[in-house]
Amino acid sequence: MEFNFYMPVRIVAGENCVRKNAALFAPFGRSALIVTGKSSARNGSLADVQAALASNGQAYAVYDQIPPNPTVGSVEEGARIAREAGASFVVAVGGGSPMDAAKAIAMLARQGSEGSIFTRAIGADVLPMVHVPTTAGTGSEVTPYAILNNDEKQTKTSISAPSLFPKIAFLDARYTQSLPRSETVNTAVDAISHAVEGMLSVRAGTLSDAVARESLHWLLGEYDALRGGELSPRSRQNLLYGATLAGIVIANTGTTPVHGMGYCLTYFHGVPHGRANGLLLPAFLRVCLRKDEARTAPVFAALGMGPAEFSDRIAALLGARETYDDATLHDYARRAAANKNVRNCAVLMEEGDLYGVFRSSVGA
């Protein structure tokens, strides 16, 4: 048995875990930059982080101007603030956008902004990071990836390096309780997509597949709660746990064409990332099953259902679908075929296959 698995993030979970474990912030230095969006001030997460830092006598500055899909300009501004504040570490508080932005900020604060952020080599000199997720979906708290808008190429592009792994992730599902149902569903579907795509990666292995199956167990176990919109505190903790497990999967495997295809829907139409993945995933899996049944059958076994039931269940969560004309879908298939995620899939996808997935999923 051969596999390669790496997970350097310390994970601390449970109610009030930030305040209870405030001492864990202390070794990172005297001053922090808190990178967040606007919702953290309403869900209690920002107040908990501020209280934890204050109890250690650590100063902090707050940068809360991260847009829903982080731009290069927003992370460059964050890095400038980090340098001016003399921040010795970064605390990310929020969903995928603040967490991804924090990674880029932590890197730029130490390595400068010369050259394109998407093509430069990322060294080891990065401000240490602590992540506090407030959604249950992206798994960014345990990955080395940061996804940013790439306006030059009109898409979203990831940057990645081992140095972008956070040092600690705090998981407290209380911060997700005020999320609207749509965001709760979209982020949960994003996590399901991570687990499924991880199993279809060329880098998948015995251990990552085991974690993916465990992730799906917890995520799909809350399907009825997601559909009904009535989520108990336990349900939300289960979803957060499952999403973090799915993040651990893709930290080792990467993602597949589903993500590259979804970037088109997000960049050009503002479709939330997790929803975009969910719109495409059922049709993508049907193509995978047709092209390589041996590789895809274990995915459906992990899901505990066949292609038709999975498609129906995702459709019930997402509701009415967006639709786009045929010329647009051909353009998006062309763009997605050039994405590096295509080469990361164990089932070879041609541009025509990707067009077929788009047409089945969001065709007019």
How does this structure look, described?
The protein has 15 helices and eight strands. It is α/β, with parallel strands linked by helices. The chain has a six-stranded parallel sheet with strand order 1-8-5-4-2-3, with helices on both faces. A two-stranded antiparallel ribbon has the order 6-7. A hairpin with a 4-residue loop joins β6 and β7. α6 packs parallel to α9 and α11 crosses α15. The longest helix has 21 residues.
Q: What string, H for helix and E for strand, traces the elements in order?
A: EHEHHEHEHEEEEHHHHHHHHHH
The overall pLDDT, averaged over residues, is 96
Rg value: 20 Å
Distance between the termini: 47 Å
What spatial form do the alpha-carbon principal axes imply? globular
Tally of individual helices = 15
Share of residues in helices:
40-55%
Residues in β-strands, percent? 5-15%
Largest sheet: 6 strands, parallel
Strand order of the largest sheet: 1-8-5-4-2-3
Structural class: alpha/beta
Oligomer: single chain
Query: Uncertain spans, ≥5 residues at pLDDT below 50?
Result: none
Task: Count the E strands.
Answer: 8
